[in-house]
Amino acid sequence: MQPPSLLLLVLGLLAAPAAALVRIPLHKFTSVRRTMTELGGPVEDLIAKGPISKYAQGAPAVTGGPIPEMLRNYMDAQYYGEIGIGTPPQCFTVVFDTGSSNLWVPSIHCKLLDIACWIHHKYNSGKSSTYVKNGTSFDIHYGSGSLSGYLSQDTVSVPCKSALSGLAGIKVERQTFGEATKQPGITFIAAKFDGILGMAYPRISVNNVLPVFDNLMQQKLVEKNIFSFYLNRDPNAQPGGELMLGGTDSKYYKGPLSYLNVTRKAYCGFMGMDIPPPGGPLWILGDVFIGCYYTVFDRDQNRVGLAQATRL
């Protein structure tokens, strides 16, 4: 029989929440804009034709209605990571977007003429033992149209599979997300990513869905309620960067972190320095400016930390 003290220690370790730093490798791909340019596509003309122009000079308005996303930014996004949805995990490549709050991926039930859906990975609820039906319709308005579908609930694994063990990462249970059945325009057809995982505050979440990171915080899956990005500026390096949940890694930056308060408790971004679009006033993963800095998003203190990124 084990001594009581040893037994209590073992039980304590089993009951303790996962507090390790969660690492998600980021891979760099050719952006949608560059892909279309190489194919001779009129990128700027495409943007100018749609109503996106009225959103290009600022952040989407926080209202009770649909929230217009800044489609221009997604055309420049280059860094994507992999998550899993369901049990066993179905893997998807997503943009980790600090300017929105919802998670969505293409659905197996997408429309017949939705080309973007058919050429990307699709979520199949019938293959998941942890799927819970929701069915509420959702609509995210972009400049050139609206992405629509319905909500579902399942377990989200971040990352989909660990590079070391080959097993799924931390599991965020009971996560509500969007199954997209209709995707607008050519942008998502040319994109290398399957969907988008919003990292911003719940305030701007469509349908008031609890964002993945907030759900992760509620389930106490990380020791610190922060996440940080490192983007490798070497175009030939793989992985192209790393997203860390629950902490930072000093090897990725030099000098002290300088913190700025977020502009409002909505976006994980901040105003400053009058950087013109598409580099500002808010940045998402993949923008040119943010790639020069190691970036820390501190949700407890509602602030963003920046330090000069190292070249590895």
List the helices and strands and how they pair.
Layout: H1 4-15, E1 22-28, H2 32-38, H3 43-49, H4 71-76, E2 79-85, E3 90-97, E4 103-106, H5 115-118, E5 132-142, E6 145-158, E7 170-182, H6 187-190, E8 195-198, H7 212-218, E9 226-231, E10 241-245, E11 253-261, E12 293-298, E13 303-309
Parallel strand pairs: 3-8, 4-7
Antiparallel strand pairs: 1-2, 1-10, 2-3, 2-6, 4-8, 5-6, 6-7, 9-10, 9-12, 11-13, 12-13
The percentage helix is 10-25%
Query: Could you report the average pLDDT, rounded to the nearest whole number?
Result: 75
Assembly level: single chain
- CATH topology: the name is Cathepsin D, subunit A, domain 1
Main sheet makeup:
6 strands, mixed, barrel
Strand-residue proportion? 25-35%
What is the terminal-to-terminal distance?
51 Å
Judging by the overall fold, what is the CATH architecture?
A: Beta Barrel
Radius of gyration from CA coordinates: 20 Å
Family: Belongs to the peptidase A1 family.
Signal peptide: 1-20
Disulfide bonds: 110-117
GO molecular function: aspartic-type endopeptidase activity
Characterise this structure.
The chain is α+β, with helices and mostly antiparallel strands and 312 residues long. Helix content is 15%, strand content 32%. It is built from seven helices and 13 strands. The model is unreliable at 5-17, 43-73 and 270-289 (pLDDT under 50). Residues 1-20 form the signal peptide. Belongs to the peptidase A1 family. One of its GO terms (molecular function) is aspartic-type endopeptidase activity.
